[in-house]
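Need a sequence for this fold. Nothing fancy.
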């Protein structure tokens, strides 16, 4: 049954496709993103379809703006049934060479940003004793990949936060779930693919990793295909705690559960073309 969904991070990619498909299924869409151009174009699409919506340009790290959007959404719709946190930025490169100030920004957006939007809507869900909180995690939230140490750390944190919070909020009728994509054919990863400088000890392995990763992206699940699977979680009465949207994440998470660490690592490094 349709209801009201908040989507944080809906200007592009999977978030945008989820918003459009949910609107087509009769849901009211409340959402925001820092990408003002993407928000404006999505608003035009939803308006052309006469879909009930409230969109805004909001930076997830602006706590006051997130709470102001929460208030606007509740004033407009009265309540919210589901919140999807799709906020996130990528981070790529050898850990030794990582800019830790930029790393802190990644953790702020990916972890605390998610926490901010969930915390904003939790009180009314708890009062109504129903609701659903869904976070976009990643395969690397359980299976860390080389050259993605900071991003992996952020997704490990997302999973830990959500799984811990689940114990606290489920007694109030609130369902919690994680989505764990690996490769989806968006520009998300490619935007940060960058070779280390000449002379870096990591340059050649990073080059091979990028080459392989971009091959995988070309044949990966599309945002619209991923959105269909995400919607199945959003609309489920009792969604699984973890769900995947692509074959790669399903396979590697299965291997992660069953194989000894050394064998899993060997498969991963061979798969990404960087096993020495």
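Here you go.
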């Amino acid at each position: 049954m349709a209801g009201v969904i908040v989507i944080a991070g809906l200007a592009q990619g999977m978030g945008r496709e989820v918003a459009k498909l949910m609107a087509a299924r009769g849901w009211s869409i409340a959402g925001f993103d820092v990408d003002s151009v993407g928000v404006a174009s999505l608003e035009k699409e939803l308006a052309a379809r006469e879909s009930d919506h409230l969109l805004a340009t909001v930076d997830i790290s602006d706590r006051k703006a997130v709470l102001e959007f929460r208030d606007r959404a509740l004033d407009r719709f009265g309540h919210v049934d589901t919140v999807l946190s799709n906020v996130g930025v990528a981070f790529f490169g050898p850990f030794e060479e990582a800019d830790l100030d930029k790393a802190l920004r990644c953790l702020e957006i990916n972890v605390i940003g998610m926490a901010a939007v969930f915390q904003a809507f939790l009180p009314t869900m708890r009062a109504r004793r129903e609701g659903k909180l869904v976070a976009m995690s990643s395969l690397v939230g359980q299976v860390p990949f080389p050259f993605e140490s900071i991003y992996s750390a952020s997704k490990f944190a997302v999973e830990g936060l959500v799984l811990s919070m689940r114990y606290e909020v489920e007694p109030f009728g609130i369902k919690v779930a994680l989505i764990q994509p690996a490769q989806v054919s968006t520009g998300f990863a490619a935007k940060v693919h960058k070779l280390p400088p000449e002379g870096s000890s990591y340059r050649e392995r990073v080059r091979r990793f990028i080459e392989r990763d971009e091959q995988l992206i070309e044949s990966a699940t599309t945002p619209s295909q991923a959105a269909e699977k995400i919607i199945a979680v959003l609309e489920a009465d009792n969604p699984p705690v973890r769900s995947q949207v692509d074959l790669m994440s399903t396979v590697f998470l299965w291997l992660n559960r069953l194989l000894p660490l050394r064998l899993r690592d060997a498969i991963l490094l061979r798969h990404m073309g960087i096993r020495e």
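For context: The first strand starts at residue 4 and ends at 8.
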